[in-house]
Amino acid sequence: RKLTLDWPDWRGDATVTGQQVTFLLEPAGAGTRLTFIHGGFGRAADIGDYPFGWREILGNLRSEAER
């Protein structure tokens, strides 16, 4: 129902810590609703950058789940 992961800096900067990704799963009619939360940003640049990568990753996850 809930999975929370510590998330590394996408640039590989080991000094940037504290980000977490949470996936919440709950029944929704005949399917499942996924709520996705990415938090703990320490730099303004990260807040602006993250939606682009997640849009692709979550799109791929959806495609796999629908297969």
Overview of the molecule:
The chain is of the alpha+beta class and 67 residues long. Helix content is 34%, strand content 34%. It contains one helix and three strands. The protein has one helix at 44-66, and strands at residues 2-6, 20-28, 31-39. The chain has a three-stranded antiparallel β-sheet with strand order 1-2-3, with no helix packed on it. A hairpin with a 2-residue loop joins strand 2 (20-28) and strand 3. The longest helix has 23 residues, at 44-66. The radius of gyration is 14 Å and the shape is elongated. The model has no long low-confidence stretch (mean pLDDT 87).
List the helices and strands and how they pair.
Blueprint: E1 2-6, E2 20-28, E3 31-39, H1 44-66
Antiparallel strand pairs: 1-2, 2-3
Characteristics:
elongated, 67 residues, 3-stranded antiparallel beta sheet, 34% strand
